[in-house]
Amino acid sequence: MGMTITEKILAESAKRSRVIPGENVWLNVDVLMTHDVCGPPTFAIWKKEFGEKAKIWDKNKLVVFPDHYIFTKNPHANRNVEVLRQFAAEHELPNYYDLGTERYKGVCHIALAEEGYNVPGTVLFGTDSHTCTSGAFGMFATGVGNTDAAFILGTGKIWERIPESMKFTFSGKMPPYLTAKDLILQILGDIGTDGATYRAMEFDGDAISSLSIYERMTLTNMAIEGGGMNGIIAVDEITSKFLADIDVNDYKTYQSDPDAVYHSKYNYDVSKLEPLVAKPHSPDNRDTVRNVAGTKLTKCYIGSCTGGKITDFYYAANLLLGKEVKVTTFIVPASTAVAKQLSEETISGISLKDIFEKSGCIIAESSCAACLGGPSDTIGRSIDGDVVISTTNRNFPGRMGSKSSQVYLASPLTVAASAINGAITDPRDFL
Amino acid sequence: MEKKITGKAYVLGDNIDTDQIIPAEHLVYSTSDPEELKKYGHYALSSVPADGAGLPNGFTPFIIGDNYKSDYKIIIGGSNFGSGSSREHAPLALQVAGVKVVIAESYARIFYRNSVDGGFLVPYVSKEKLNDKIKTGDIIEVDLESNKIKNLSNDSSYQLFSLGDVFEIVEAGGLFEYARTSGMI
Description:
The complex is a heterodimer.
Chain A: H1 5-13, E1 24-28, E2 31-35, H2 39-50, E3 62-65, H3 75-90, H4 108-114, E4 123-126, E5 140-143, H5 146-155, E6 157-161, E7 164-171, H6 180-191, E8 199-204, H7 206-209, H8 213-221, E9 230-232, H9 237-245, E10 264-269, E11 276-278, E12 286-288, H10 289-292, E13 299-303, H11 304-307, H12 310-320, E14 328-332, H13 336-344, E15 346-347, E16 350-351, H14 352-358, E17 362-363, E18 387-390, E19 406-410, H15 412-421
Parallel strand pairs in A: 2-3, 2-4, 4-5, 7-8, 7-10, 8-9, 13-14, 13-18, 14-17, 18-19
Antiparallel strand pairs in A: 1-6, 11-12, 11-19, 15-16
Helix pairs in contact in A: 2-5, 6-8, 12-15
Chain B: E1 4-11, H1 18-21, H2 34-42, E2 72-76, H3 89-96, E3 101-104, H4 109-117, E4 122-125, E5 139-143, E6 148-151, E7 156-159, H5 167-172, H6 175-181
Parallel strand pairs in B: 1-2, 2-3, 3-4
Antiparallel strand pairs in B: 1-5, 5-6, 6-7
């Protein structure tokens, strides 16, 4: 009996010849990532539990990004960044990306990819549920809490239950009005927010092979919205080219065996899919954009680990070129590298940054910003009864700030089209 | 570990995510300072929409006024309890508020792990849907040896799934205690 790509990677990490879904194994962790919200409590637990003997298992494998509550006057939030800074200094951490320096990167999941921490075949744990994003690189990546992270910090090990795998195959040629965000919203509508709980979500098919690495990251990023333990896409030429460009060349690649056993398999023909939204207040509350077209908006938001990558801004800029937005529209590049690209990359000779500025968008500095609400002075945060359309990942009650706001999740194409009209709009109206 | 836990039930619907359990704006407080820690209890479940707060009637606050302790020791949830973000502050907030046990039809993975590994509370899985049978304010007795709960307000009882593999971690009081007992660290 064959194994899935997730089972093969976990078997290797557990130093076993094979693993079976449902069994608990102790994994050897390759990278532990944390940030300003969960880093301070993680370090506190590690100090308390290991006491005098507290030792970081491998400094080179710990990566720390301040990214959540960054540009705020909130004293408690600023104190958390100071805790990271002091910890990094005290332990001479090589992989700390300090705020206020040139090393500052922005949103952790995108920075992990840009900085070469996403290495195929390896096992990455992070104190953030969207750590599953890294699975786009043919690796196992998942989120944990502070206690688990503190345990890893001291031992390099963690127990995990081997997940069953679900396979999602997308065939056909991607139409110009469809993005990876529409594909994952399609899946979430089909399986619900607990349809993949404790399972691996594996994506394949020729439509997936045609996607850039950043688009693939949108799929694996939202695996957690289905409850998934991890999302994963096997390495191909697009992955290896991306990695070669940032000098990551030494890694193992795995593929699922043809006779691997799956919990379930889903097949989609992308030519038959439509632009989608998730209506308030759940990522699985799927509808077609056309069904909710005309819904009046008060804010549009393009940003986050899900929808703040350079590919997301290309999609949006293509529609916004030469047009003006009718409602307040926030552009929040996930990372400082993406922010730099906005100035460098052009459409018809105009930089993306200029396109956004001329269309009336507000460009913010790189961080998680209003994706998760944040302190009250966070840019883009929803207030009162705001009606927002956003490229982010969650629209739970109060997620983007105000408990009484309504948040629609959609692709960058749909958000841009909606910004032009001030009401939810199918991108096909502009393509 | 206590063998029996008795307390008032607070009943919630399906898909109670961690943003509802502890809204992200409150994640800035220290988890080691005893005074600041109280904030987590105070804001526990503060983003649950009012009509779903304390079923079946709703509009029942979990925390009253400036308190950080709740009257309710036992949470009865539905399916997919604790979905969303990885914030360990979620089971921590419930613990600070005085919650000892959550009983739900299913859990999101990270919330479940955090509850067990952090030793915050006991996450039981019920064998049937209970959030339409138990009412907020009912007095519930949880028997951790027989994996049963009894509703003392109307004398009905229900079976829970055993904690299985993770019982040893729950019994030890968390992952670190378990690892020390078993000689791992």
